[in-house]
Amino acid sequence: MGIVFMVLYFFIVAFVIEISVILFNLTGLEEEVSRYQVVSMLTNTGFTTDEAQLIIDHPVRRRLSMFLILFGAFSLAVIISSITNILSSDLRLKELMIINLVLLVLLMTGKTPIIRKKLKTKLNSEMEKKLEISELPIKDALYLEEDDLVTDIVIEEDSPFIDAKAKDIIGKEEDISILFIKRGKVSIRHKLYDETLHEGDQLFIYGNKQAIEKKFS
């Protein structure tokens, strides 16, 4: 009976992982990244700095991560306790089976396109209600269209843009905007398009991905 209890509880953990992956994915996080982060939070093993920022900067993901960290700590206590009571008859297998069935239904429901669409709309609206645009992650604030891109371009020593003004590089009709120019430790924002570019300058730009790739290929 003890082995059955352990198996049922591990099924609960697996269902929680998959449901959490779906929820993270609906907030815009890639599925593989979502799964890695969920497992990391459940096991309290930590996660990489760059990807951690994707969680911390997003209000919905942040709440999900708090639940997963607490659930992971609780699960560890349950597993240790179940091993201690492996010979006990009071393992509540019926309750565990019911929990598994409920989580399975939630998981299958979360995979249906209609529910995913509704959940995605709900999660996005929750984020928009709670945050000013200045608090949103760059992707959520600026990636308004599927082909939008924020990136940086470094002016190399053989670049044709050296000694050219920013306004001569990017025409008014092009779907590209310069956010700022980083020169060493200085960030240039004032009269940006009148600035003459030098070797080593770093241009932070925003616009259509295809237009950016064509211009700076």
UniProtKB/TrEMBL annotation:
Chain ranges passing through the membrane: 6-26, 64-84, 96-114
Out of the domains of life, which is the source? Bacteria
**SUPFAM superfamilies per record:** TrkA C-terminal domain-like (SSF116726)
Q: Does the keyword Metal-binding apply?
A: no
Instruction: Indicate the segments forming the RCK C-terminal domain, all copies.
Output: 136-217
Keywords, in A-Z order: Membrane, Transmembrane, Transmembrane helix
Q: Which Pfam families match?
A: TrkA_C
InterPro entries, alphabetized: RCK_C, RCK_C_sf
Q: Which PROSITE patterns match?
A: RCK_C
Name listed for the protein in its UniProt record: RCK C-terminal domain-containing protein
